[in-house]
Amino acid sequence: MKKTAASRRIYAYLLAGVLALAGAAPALAQAPDAPPTTAETIHNLTAVGWANLGIQLTLSLDSPVEQIRQETLQHINFFATHYGDRVDFARAVPRLLRIYETDATEGYRIMALTALHAIGDAGAMQYLREALRWERSERVRRLTLAALADYAARTQAL
Question: Tell me: the pLDDT tens digits for 122-156?
């Protein structure tokens, strides 16, 4: 999906809002002449900030605004992949499974699958394994098999 200038602005506002709700606002207030980069803001999050980030992203999955839901899925993928040891997405797993199972848009289903894979919840992986029986989309089926194979390889390596 190509991002327009308006969607980039919405994305920036959404990320800034999520980070502010997650407790990064004090970091932004410390340097009014040169606001920190997103990476600096993320680096300065406290444990409470990380918890709030996970909660806010989980709640945003139910937004009535399609673009917010899409960006939220991307954010969950990013944070689960790069900061999975800091952000708890356990509460997001049921919502992500619901998106994977019921969303009419294949792209959202695939993004939910990617998020579930990045989170690596054992129960979710078992559910995905069983869900393959009734999966109608060949593309989603192949990607689910790949995600399950990668998860199995990662967990066996531990």
Answer: 999 999 999 999 999 999 999 999 999 999 999 99
φ/ψ (deg, to 5) at 65: -95, 120
Instruction: Tell me the per-residue pLDDT of 80-109, one tens digit each, with 9 for 90 and over.
Output: 999 999 999 999 999 999 999 999 999 999
Three-state SS for the chain is CCCCHHHHHHHHHHHHHHHHHHHHHHHHHCCCCCCCCHHHHHHCCCHHHHHHHHHHHHHHCCCCCHHHHHHHHHHHHHHHHHHCCCCCCCCHHHHHHHHHHHCCCHHHHHHHHHHHHHHCCHHHHHHHHHHHHHCCCHHHHHHHHHHHHHHHHHHHHC
Q: Report angle CA 52, 57, 60 to the nearest 5 degrees.
A: 125
Task: Report the alpha-carbon distance of residue 70 to residue 25 in Å, rounded.
Answer: 24
Show the tokens assigned to 110: 């695939």
